[in-house]
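The material for today's practical consists of a large collection of protein records. An example says more than a description, so a record of this kind follows:
***
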Amino acid sequence: MQTKMKTALTFLALAGMIGGLTATARADDMRHGGKGHHGMRLEKADADNSGDLTFEEYATTIDARLANADADGDGQMTVGEIADEIVRMRAERAARRLVRRFDVDGDGALTPGEIENRQRKMFALLDRNDDGVIDRSEMPRRHGKGHHRRDRRH
């Protein structure tokens, strides 16, 4: 069971990280409560709730995101250290989303039973004819032959 759980959690974490990658939104969106430069939310960065950002508020928010990037404590952040921190932050966000989705009892942790419960629900949705197996005709269809979602240009 331990191996099954580790495999499931690894798959879920990887799926969440891949699915969680997004492009940075336009700075105009900040004024409307959306994500702006660096994916920052105006409401969270606006420490004094004035409705706008000062340089100090902006810098404090960015500094907080990079606080752990200097892994070796030498006062410099290398590309590798920054990349490692970005990967860690994205993985943590993906893990939080997965826990929120799967955590039936709301205790903030996943059990093998909660993971299996979600897997059964997902399987049941795919098994459209309720015969206990999923065949090719029941699998979700892709958008056009040979075209993957990541290949589409907007």
